[in-house]
DNA sequence: CGAGTCTTTGAAAACACTCAAGGTAGGTGG
DNA sequence: CCACCTACCTTGAGTGTTTTCAAAGACTCG
């Protein structure tokens, strides 16, 4: 029926064999399509929130503003990821959500989601897995900020993004298209934009990875993995989830 | 019936008015009491896990080991907190869990939890809130590592812990008992133990807070809040959660 | 072509780290 | 009861990574 699968479906299908009925429910969640403009916040920090979204196309950044004006990026969302799910559940938003490019997203009401769960428990399992994976990524990010130097941090970040994009058909071990600026990288990795530039230059000169003109190109994947101590286990879990 | 309320009950009661029946179900979850020895891991990194726990007494640390031998502490758990809930849901553990002192914890089977939810939906809401709060704390921790200097990081950490402990009756704006060593602080805050020592000395000399002999004493609470830019909104949410 | 955004580089300064060493307190065994 | 051990805390000196400040080059878009 649906030959044109959504990124979320692609991602979940990689880990849970979903039946036809489940796929149908999943696609139904993508009904209310909306588009949002780059740079205009979906959710402001402190605002109490109404709806969650499934990102269909484009890149989004979740960030937290500091009183001193600096910002820390908590995570980036790519197609197939949820937006603002926690904000909805908590009825409050402790962080901002901003599209990096023009995006397309499906609005999901909590009621729809709960109903989908009731109809197809396996789908609930799959989504629970996705949410838990998001949490694992935040933890990994935290470890990077606390215990990796700037080079390893950058390498790890670019590798993780590569794996995530591969799961939705937007990347490979060769590289991927990437609309992020060096300022984005700086705010995500807890570095200054200037230092990001130096680190990127070093990685490029060492022929490990090239970040340029909106493209990330892996020149030496294995070398980069070694530099970053990158273990993708938390991303592309092989064993079955729950029952 | 229950005059002797558990820390978890105390914590949840602060934010959701729970009926007698709900309180009873909550206390029932505390049946299978177990004790664990300080320093002996409950869960090893990489191990796939069986049970979750509700911590009743003592302190626990969740950490992630790096290939280079260093470790990053993701969070500390105090009475009333869940242990290993995500590990159970994901059927895998990406981090270790170690008691800092001898602890007492109630084993909770996933089936029990799900049944409790079915019986008392409001309880599910309350626990969902607790889990989401844990996530918010990890995010706040991440922001600290990325965008706060060592002094502010330490100040923020000690303040957050104070608020958390207050919710279970183990602390106040005066201070609290704290079994952590400077090595724990170092691994949590992404600093070297030596630097932690210097930072603590500075905070003590500035008469802001004193960390000594297992006690944290706030000498100037407001000053510390200002230094850390501490906003406890994410911890002691006032508005009602969900319906 | 002018404005804005993003990238690149240099120089100096600040922050946090490593190495090295000593001090304290509590526990253990002779 | 003392010597020793271990774990934790404290301090100094020197080093190195990352930052800030300053400035300029490249690109895109209207």
Automatic annotation (TrEMBL), chains A, B:
Does the record carry NADP as a key word? no
Which domain of life, per UniProt? Answer: Bacteria
- InterPro entries, alphabetized: cNMP-bd_dom, cNMP-bd_dom_sf, HTH_CRP, RmlC-like_jellyroll, WH-like_DNA-bd_sf, WH_DNA-bd_sf
Could you list this entry's UniProt keywords, alphabetically sorted. DNA-binding, Transcription, Transcription regulation
- Report domain Cyclic nucleotide-binding positions: 14-89
CDD domains found in the cross-reference section:
CAP_ED
Q: Which SUPFAM superfamilies match?
A: cAMP-binding domain-like, Winged helix' DNA-binding domain
Domain (HTH crp-type) ranges? 148-222
Q: Quote the protein name from its UniProt record.
A: Crp/Fnr family transcriptional regulator
């Amino acid at each position: 029926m649906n030959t044109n699968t959504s990124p979320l479906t692609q991602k979940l299908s990689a880990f849970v064999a979903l039946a036809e009925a489940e796929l149908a429910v999943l696609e139904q969640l993508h009904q209310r399509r909306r588009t949002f403009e780059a740079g205009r916040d979906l959710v402001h920090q402190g605002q109490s929130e109404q709806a969650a979204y499934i990102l269909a196309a484009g890149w989004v950044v979740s960030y937290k503003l500091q009183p001193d004006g600096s910002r820390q990026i908590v995570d980036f969302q790519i197609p197939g990821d949820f937006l603002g799910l926690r904000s909805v559940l908590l009825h409050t938003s402790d962080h901002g959500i901003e599209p990096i490019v023009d995006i397309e997203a499906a609005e999901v009401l909590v009621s729809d989601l709960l109903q989908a769960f009731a109809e197809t428990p396996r789908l609930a399992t799959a989504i629970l897995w996705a949410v838990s994976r998001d949490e694992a990524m935040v933890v990994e990010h935290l470890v990077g900020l606390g215990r990796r130097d700037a080079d390893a941090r950058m390498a790890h970040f670019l590798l993780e993004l590569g794996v995530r994009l591969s799961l939705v058909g937007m990347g490979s071990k060769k590289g991927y298209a990437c609309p992020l600026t060096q300022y984005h990288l700086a705010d995500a990795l807890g570095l200054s934009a200037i230092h990001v530039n130096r680190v990127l230059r070093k990685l490029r000169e060492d022929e490990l990875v090239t970040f340029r003109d909106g493209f990330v190109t892996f020149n030496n994947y294995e070398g980069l993995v070694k530099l970053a101590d990158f273990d993708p286990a938390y991303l592309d879990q092989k064993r079955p989830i729950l029952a």
